Amino acid sequence: MVIQQRPILLAASTTLSTGGSALFDAAKLQRQERAHCVIHEIVFMIDGIPIAGSASTSLPSIGGVVRANIDVGSFPLTRGFTPLWSLATCPQEGNIRAADTVPADPEIAFSKSTAGADKIRNQYRWLLPRPLFVPGGTAFDVALQWVNDVATVTYSNLTVWVGIRGYALQPGTPIPSKISVPFATAFVVNEEGLGLVSDALRLVNPFPVPLNVQRFIGRIQTTKPGWITEANSMFNYDEAALSLRLADSQGYDLIRVGNGGSTPWGLAFDQNRRAWTSPRILDSHEWYSATVGPLTNPTTSKPMLSMVGYREEETANA
């Protein structure tokens, strides 16, 4: 007899107001059965209706100002509140959008309801570096924060969904002695008291065990009159013509400033995925230092650089 996997989707939603925070109902993100499960992706979906008179037809992407702090049991999956789009590479598939008049962005859906109200939907999918084993009865604790950026007040409230996808294991499956736990951390320019250079507390391995870095994700948030979205890192020169230097705590340059004085941001991150696959093991408390700039429009552009990977944790510490 073939033993089949049983797919599962744990889902919850909450309302988020500008400048506010919210918690998802942990009971909805916890399997009540005693059987263990394996999780392979976490998906966030944001629905919003612009305030009347705002520039709603601009197809905003607000994954930079909506941020999540994620824990499973006693294990943190993020370093504090991390921008949603800094968790996820951008998928290369197109998106279906009503009355599409511009090339589709796979993370944005835009439509008009029958009542004529503009609606926006953003979706960000974190495909975990390795499947995450979750013991039966363990809950995901997911908190949200909406950074009070001036441009995002064009939305009165947002409805945010989280979906945790995986499969249930057969009853009696033993708990492994170690599990692979994903982790993401981000450096946001001009936040947390930092300017254009990250410090040893941002792109860091904060754990006592090695961190297997899988990739870096580069996003540039741009603010326009009445709306906010992502700058295209290859085609929007004014906002993305900035240099990037990346070095580790041992002094090794991953990205060195070139002979012309700059290494363009767009050379590091694939245009479709916004990501750079760069496997590396960081020992405990090793870090990367990023230097970004100069910004062409420092008041409207905000680069965000994240590091995504996983570490091996003993389940006895869960």
Question: Can you describe what's shown?
Answer:
The protein is an all-beta fold and 318 residues long. The protein has one domain. Helix content is 3%, strand content 48%. It has two helices and 19 strands. It has helices at 237-240, 265-268, and strands spanning 6-17, 21-23, 37-50, 66-72, 75-76, 82-83, 108-112, 118-134, 140-146, 155-168, 178-188, 203-204, 211-224, 227-230, 243-248, 253-255, 275-282, 287-293, 301-314. The strands form four sheets. Strands 1-10-3-8-7 form a five-stranded antiparallel beta sheet, with no helix packed on it. β15 (243-248) and β16 form a beta hairpin. It is globular and about 60 Å long. The chain starts with 5 loop residues before the first strand and ends with a strand.
Query: Which consecutive residue ranges, at least 5 long each, have pLDDT under 50?
Result: 92-103
Order of helices and strands: EEEEEEEEEEEEEEHEEHEEE
What is the averaged pLDDT score? 82
Q: Total strand count, please?
A: 19
Please list the strands of the largest sheet in the order they lie side by side. Answer: 1-10-3-8-7
Based on CA inertia axes, which overall geometry fits? globular
Taking all Cα atoms into account, the compactness measure Rg is: 20 Å
Tell me the β content: over 45%
Structural class: mainly beta
Number of domains: 1
Number of contiguous helices? 2
Helical coverage, percent range: under 10%
User: What's the main sheet like?
Assistant: 5 strands, antiparallel
Gap between N and C termini: 34 Å
